[in-house]
């Protein structure tokens, strides 16, 4: 672009391009993964570290516990994970069977859980997952009491960060014979999952639904409730009231296999602000650390994990980042990215079923590009790195258990992040919105 | 064997019924004093017979497999939801979402069923001897919803491959649901269901409804239907 040309701020070239695409095609854009817009996030926070009044722990020599127990409020058999980083729900259908197996392998090697998705439980993921969370979604595709009993926990999905208020979407090119069979649908249709549950409509009903699930599973399984970051204070309160053992909060940066771009970019609030609200609700109910909180949506590094825990989460969940550990957006098979009109680092074409690296596809040729054993090793290495980073930051703040990290350990770099996370702006004692905070 | 909910806890009764061993000869049970409790007979696994003497709350017989359950009363929301197999008979009326997402087996409601009967059903046969409320068979994927009475508004909205048979009047059909020809094959299939379930009805008196399949793939030409 020539330097003397001035772009319209209201109509930058990307907006003009989208207007002209819409004018030509008359239909919204559908795509995968999460929000591409910049929102306040964990990068806008820093840890203070140790000082005269805070004693650090010695590097990797002094122990720093990372284990976490999930679901000990009501469940007879809560889950004890070695690390507070879980794998988020992603459906078989959105992902191929090799990807699901790789996720199970990587998570199991690190002593953590993985999660089914909108398509039921596959034998590959059950077989490869030490701890498997079984999602109960509005569609109930593949839902059955045998798999419910095989699960280590049950996650009732109310919403998803990428699209709170929207149901699932899996386009026809990914509905092959096996996927269609598991979902009791014709092959090749553009499948729209329901956006609300078929047999309950509010928190009072949900309480009864949870009772039913507990009766079917002999009160053994922890029950999670997953909500998209819409009204996290109220949703968390209602989830606790409904009897959840664990609340899963998914911020707007969370990914999806396919939905409307306008949904991904314009519905829901960032993880940073949502987490604060959810923790507030738990504390007001005196349920913080009693009902565990798992947060997801844009978790990429051990620093993100540590900051989420410092703000009050018990664990985090990763989806997009786990896919990336399996090679999503890796600089491989460039020509196939080009065929999709994209390139490594920019691809969000999960919805097409033509994933160049064999992660989000049902194409048998493409799927072979992901070896589940090697993929599992890469995920294990990634989870190991996140855990080491988390411990490093916890020790630097003098914590022998990562869950001892606290908001007091944090400072914000922007006014927005200070207001959302409710920690002081760095170098000040100012928390926007809190009058009496000193 | 009598199981009295005034004397035993629901969990105790459900556990007992879920774990009746094959070696047990006593396979008939009667539940007394249900008093509208929720999740009665949830998750039963084997071919036992249970008779519930009174009204039940939500999710009675939820996710049933193989068992035959008869409720001598009315039932709350989600009776036989996600049923896999077996038979559930309701002597009275059913609240909303009866047979929701059911994969198999038969649900017979002798009275009326409220809204969203058979929502997202996946292979179950639901027979309602009375009438059904609005949005019944919403997003129904597979199986048969057979209505001997009338159907309220938006029947079969966004239906997939399930079949709806109605003897009475239909107030209105939902998106992408149309009346279909009731041919010999359908008449034969429906009569077989009636025969298997000991219901004396003539399939020829029923109209059939199903998917126009216009919404199966997202096309801009259909935007007015969305």
TrEMBL record, chain A:
Q: Into which family does the record put it?
A: Belongs to the glutamate synthase family.
CDD domains cross-referenced by the UniProt entry: GltS_FMN
- From the Swiss-Prot or TrEMBL record, give the protein name: Glutamate synthase large subunit
So what EC number does this one have?
1.4.1.13
Per the UniProt entry, what is one GO biological process? glutamate biosynthetic process
- Pfam families linked to this entry: Glu_synthase
Give the signal peptide as a residue range, or say none if absent. Answer: none
Concerning SUPFAM superfamilies, the annotation shows:
FMN-linked oxidoreductases (SSF51395)
Q: Which UniProt keywords apply?
A: Oxidoreductase
Annotated Glutamate synthase domain residues = 74-399
Give the domain of life: Bacteria
Question: PANTHER family under this entry?
Answer: ARCHAEAL-TYPE GLUTAMATE SYNTHASE [NADPH] (PTHR43819)
Give the source lineage, highest ranks first: Bacteria, Pseudomonadati, Pseudomonadota, Alphaproteobacteria, Candidatus Pelagibacterales
What organism is this sequence from?
Answer: Pelagibacter ubique (strain HTCC1062)
Which InterPro entries has this protein been placed in?
Aldolase_TIM, GltB, GltB_archl_type, Glu_synthdom
Molecular functions (GO terms): glutamate synthase (NADPH) activity
